[in-house]
Automatic annotation (TrEMBL):
Keywords: Molybdenum, Oxidoreductase
Leader peptide range in chain numbering: none
Organism for this UniProt entry: Nocardioides agariphilus
Coiled coil residues, start to end: none
Highest taxon listed in the record's lineage: Bacteria
TM ranges: none
Protein name: Xanthine dehydrogenase family protein
SUPFAM superfamilies, A to Z: CO dehydrogenase molybdoprotein N-domain-like, Molybdenum cofactor-binding domain
Molecular function GO terms recorded: iron ion binding; oxidoreductase activity
PANTHER family referenced in this protein's UniProt entry, alphabetically: ALDEHYDE OXIDASE 1-RELATED, XANTHINE DEHYDROGENASE
Pfam families: Ald_Xan_dh_C, MoCoBD_1, MoCoBD_2
Entry-linked InterPro entries: Ald_Oxase/Xan_DH_a/b, Ald_Oxase/Xan_DH_a/b_sf, Ald_Oxase/xanthine_DH-like, AldOxase/xan_DH_MoCoBD1, AldOxase/xan_DH_MoCoBD2, AldOxase/xan_DH_Mopterin-bd_sf
Aldehyde oxidase/xanthine dehydrogenase a/b hammerhead domain residues: 20-140
Sequence segments annotated as region (Disordered): 616-636
Length: 799
């Protein structure tokens, strides 16, 4: 019998190709001979009027084929002169603003695109960009949340107070509950702006085939179908005239979910108008100054609680820096405002936020998408309550947990998908007990005393989170069984290293009873699956995994129906093992999947068992049509999965750190994770996601930040200045344990896992450093120099 694959530690099938250097990224695409190359002139100012763009010195430069500014766009394609789309509108986003493909009279951040050049090669294109002269009227820039709130200058002159949105949600009367509580604390907490740095930046290649009026675009994107739709609209093409293919992607992490980027429109437009393939690949500095950032928020917390530490009321107000434009709406602050609650019952809860314009790069989700900020706020609050009451931090958390018998649990708020914030399943007390055992929570006081005797400072921290995953609206899948017996699976969302080729194959192989090696998975190709949403929000396994399960089940039903007819047996008596359908208990009475695939296509031929091929004309059964009304030729299954609401994964992290008494360097001694994403498809891949997330979280907590000066210049726009952890800074081993509380919302009982490793990082490191140092950490990320300064500040404060 075929070994069940779902839930087993199957080696990733895609790795050998990458390890051997055979990955194929956008820059590797050979779109044909005579490919042209594009470069972009970007603003050196954070805020300025664009008075005139002088391109005369470029037009006659040998090798230059096109030079465009905003004034050219309407003549090239009228919709190109309109602003880029607002992808996720919201009623409270009262002053949404999106940029143009090329700046229309004003630039609002350093790096905004002003002119687009196409030339024989990138060298000529860059030289041409360098010859373009621009007359600016420099305007006062607004940089940072404090400057945005003061509103002494405006990013957009028609947006009062720089406020793009104000939003409030509540469950109960939090102010009244806090006023009547025995104890009240207030906290001010900050998370600074940061950004993801994928191995591969943005890249687009386009080729126009005049013979068939068809455009093929390769893009390093997280949403090939969204890019396809945008290109069709902006270029005035039918959707069927545009194919978008996502090749290997060297990391997404959220920055590539925004669509379309200006280059994703300008490159296809140039390819169509010039009749030659065109390529654009950003360099690293361009990624720093013109891609999306995230994280920047300031929070004010008031919390009321009783003598035991039980929450009675929680009131949170925060300010979100969304940069110069709002293409992705309010997703990040909405997630913060709702996911902040984590696994707890807050008593009464009120949350308010303002989303503010600044003259900096726009904000879109970055792995975690608002959850790291929310987790930081809630977990710092729990630690503050424990410290105030002199209680164990784990005990205070346990007292406030939602209990296993309380699911589904409605938090009384609306989540990012417009649905109720209702947790589907979980067992938070069990997770905490597992984590305490894993990290040695009870034994730590003795260890701390031992280290102190040696003159060493150590601290321990823990942080809990809940993550909404698998948000809709849908994903689809197509499963096709070939006449060779091989299985082809296609789903529309894209892949950026998550192991989709393995886990999706595991799902299909189990349903169809075929070896894993016989399943081939294709993602992110609109030619194979034209309708999809995209890869983000830890949704791939839940959404496409469920769709593949449903589609494979449809294919299996047809397999059994045809096999039953061929073997003259009941469908209930059949089984599929290693790609062969046989009668249970009678393996000699069998038929291969490939043979069934041939029989599924009634070409008015008979099938010869000996030669295993279609042979001669046959009328079949004269009493019925060759293809039934409710059937179609071929051995295929296609289906879509659309959830009623998100499913909620959860987890808890703990870390032991050592802080150097002299240098204030922070060293990780032990890191532990307990994670619950429902049924595990492949535990090894989930653990790989956690390892990667923890590494990214270490960077976000201790190293990575976007440092702007007051004029809006990014001061660390290179890897010489933007710090990232090396392997020497990441834990060499991470202790991981799993809990599986299946979700009742999808056929596989699964939840997402992609962002689990990064969500609690800032919170858990702040807690551990606070424990080591003896004072509270209220702003992240924290560097050794900042920790050193905090030490001096607390030493100087009067006792």
């Amino acid at each position: 019998m075929t070994t069940k694959l779902f839930g087993t530690r199957v080696q990733r099938v895609e790795d050998q190709r990458f390890l051997r250097g055979q990955g194929r990224y956008v820059d590797d695409i050979d779109a044909g001979p005579h490919t042209l190359h594009a470069a972009v002139l970007r603003s050196p100012h954070a805020h300025a009027k664009v008075l005139e763009v002088h391109v005369d010195d470029v037009l006659d430069l040998e090798g230059v084929h096109a030079v465009w500014t905003y004034e050219d766009l309407a003549d090239l394609s009228a919709p190109m002169a309109d602003p880029l789309p607002l992808l996720i509108p919201h009623p409270t986003l009262t002053h949404a603003r999106t940029q143009y493909a090329l700046a229309n009279g004003e630039v609002n951040y350093v790096g905004e695109a002003i002119a687009f050049v196409v030339a024989d090669d990138r060298y000529v294109a860059e030289d041409a960009v360098g010859r373009i002269r621009v007359d600016y009227e420099v305007l006062p820039p607004v940089v940072g949340i404090e400057a945005a709130r003061s509103a002494t200058a405006l990013v957009h002159e028609d947006v009062p107070g720089n406020v793009g949105a104000r939003m409030e949600q509540s469950n109960g009367d939090a102010p009244a509950a806090i006023a009547g509580a025995p104890h009240v604390l207030t906290l001010d907490l900050t998370v600074e702006r940061s950004a993801c740095q994928p191995m591969e930046g943005r890249g687009t290649v386009a080729r126009w085939d005049r013979d068939i009026d068809r455009l093929t675009v390769w893009s390093s994107t997280q949403t090939s179908t969204g890019v396809r739709a945008a290109i069709a609209v902006k270029l005035g093409l039918d959707l069927g005239q545009v194919d978008v293919v996502t090749p290997d992607v060297g990391g997404g992490f959220g920055v590539k979910i925004n669509h379309p980027w200006p280059e994703e429109l300008l490159v296809p437009l140039a390819a169509r108008l010039l009749g030659r393939p065109v390529k654009f690949v950003e360099d690293r500095r361009e990624h720093f100054i013109s891609s999306a950032h995230e994280r920047g928020q300031v929070h004010h917390v008031e919390v009321g609680f009783d003598d035991d530490g039980r929450l009675l009321g929680l009131d949170v107000e925060f300010w979100h820096d969304h940069g110069a434009y709002t293409p992705y709406g309010l997703i990040v602050p909405i997630i913060t405002s709702t996911q902040l609650l984590g696994p707890y019952k807050p008593g009464a809860y009120r949350v308010r936020f303002e989303s503010l314009f600044t003259n900096t790069v726009m904000v879109t989700p970055y792995r975690g998408a608002g959850r790291p900020q929310g987790c930081f706020v809630m977990e710092r609050t729990m630690d503050a309550i424990a410290a105030y009451l002199g209680k164990d931090r784990a005990d205070v958390r346990a007292l406030n947990f939602i209990q296993p018998d309380e699911f589904p649990y409605d938090q009384g708020l609306i989540f990012q998908d417009g649905r109720a914030l209702e947790y589907d399943s979980g067992d938070y007390p069990a997770s905490l007990e597992k984590l305490k055992a894993l990290v040695g929570w009870e034994e730590f006081p003795a260890f701390k005393a031992e280290m102190a005797a040696q003159g060493r400072q150590v601290g321990i921290g823990l942080a809990c989170y809940v993550e909404g995953t698998g948000v809709g609206p849908y994903e689809g899948a197509h499963v096709h069984i070939e006449t060779t017996g091989k299985v082809k699976v296609a789903t529309g969302l894209t892949t950026q290293g998550q192991g989709h080729a393995t886990v999706f194959a595991q799902i299909a192989a189990d349903v169809l009873g075929v070896p894993l090696a016989d399943v081939q998975v294709v993602t992110g190709d609109t030619r194979r699956m034209p309708y999809a949403v995209g890869t983000f929000a830890s949704r791939a396994a839940v959404m496409s995994g469920s769709a593949i399960h449903l589609a494979a089940t449809r294919a299996r039903e047809k397999v059994l129906r045809i096999a039953a007819d061929a073997l003259e047996a009941s469908e209930d008596d059949l089984e599929i093992t290693d790609g062969v359908v046989s009668v249970k208990g009678a393996p000699a009475s069998s038929i291969a999947l490939g043979t069934i695939a041939v029989l599924s296509n009634p070409l008015r031929y008979a099938f010869d068992e000996q030669s295993k091929m279609a042979t001669q004309f046959s009328v079949g059964d004269p009493g019925k049509p060759p293809v039934a009304e409710d059937d179609e030729p071929g051995l295929e299954g296609k289906d879509f999965y659309s959830p009623e609401r998100a499913t909620f994964a959860s987890g808890m992290h703990a870390v032991i750190v050592e802080t150097d008494p002299l240098t204030a360097e922070i060293k990780i001694l032990k890191y532990a994770v307990v994670h619950d994403c429902g049924h595990l498809i492949n535990p090894m891949i989930v653990e790989g996601q956690i390892h990667g997330g923890v590494a990214q979280g270490v960077g976000g907590a201790l190293y990575e930040r976007m440092a702007y000066d007051e004029s809006g210049q990014l001061l660390n726009a290179s890897f010489m200045d933007f710090l990232m952890p090396y392997v020497t800074e990441v834990p060499t081993s991470i202790d991981i344990d799993h809990l599986e509380t299946p979700s009742p919302l999808n056929p596989l009982g699964i939840k997402g896992a992609g962002e689990a490793g990064v969500i609690p990082s800032a919170a858990v490191f702040a807690a551990a450093i606070s424990d080591a140092e003896g004072f509270s950490i209220t702003s992240m990320p924290i560097s050794p120099s900042e920790l050193f300064a905090l030490r001096r500040l607390h030493q100087e404060e009067p006792s």
